[in-house]
């Protein structure tokens, strides 16, 4: 029973940590793209959710991609990069493959293209300052999870509710531990009281025995004194009779 309970606790803890990690990933991906001017990263890495199929089959809408900050001077044609650009007259992030690199007066410019855009390059040519990082890999479908978490219902079901249940479970555990601790302390106190009572009874018994022994010793002493007095009286009587006997002989 204890082994099963311990195993259940471990499983719940693993689930909780998975939820926490998922929540952290969701929070970071949300934070990473909240500000179009500055993309957040951890140790140079940033997760982003793919919104279109422009790079299919390399990755597609609903995937979660990972980009890493890079030295733009080492980029080459064919690399996949994430960069700031204009899409539908809005400032946005895009992740496409470098089709061509041009350099003039030490300044590089990049023409990009989506793998699924039928050979049509992106309208805007970008520079080093537009580049956020280089694509290093993706997890298929995980972006859909992030998008679901971004909804109020998804966040409530997947993040808030499990964490609330776990919190309630932990509070219940603390209460049970407190109850067990109080019971253990009560048992220990009862044992101490019982032991103290036994020791007191033994002490009282020893005191009674000592008192009886003292009384017996006193009685024996009194008896010895009486016998001594009788013996002295008999001796005195014998001496007196002896004296009288000698007077009669004279």
TrEMBL record:
The lineage of its organism: Bacteria, Bacillati, Bacillota, Clostridia, Lachnospirales. The keyword Membrane applies. It comes from the Bacteria. GO terms for biological process: signal peptide processing. GO terms for molecular function: serine-type endopeptidase activity; signal peptidase activity. It is found in: Membrane. One of its GO terms (cellular component) is membrane. Gene3D superfamilies: Umud Fragment, subunit A (2.10.109.10). The chain crosses the membrane at residues 7-28, 153-175. This is Signal peptidase I. Residues 196-248 form a coiled coil. InterPro entries: LexA/Signal_pep-like_sf, Peptidase_S26, Peptidase_S26B. Its EC number is 3.4.21.89. Residues 43-85 form the Peptidase S26 domain. NCBIfam families: sigpep_I_arch (TIGR02228). It comes from [Ruminococcus] torques. Pfam families: Peptidase_S26. Its main location: membrane. The gene is sipW_1. Keywords: Coiled coil, Hydrolase, Membrane, Transmembrane, Transmembrane helix.
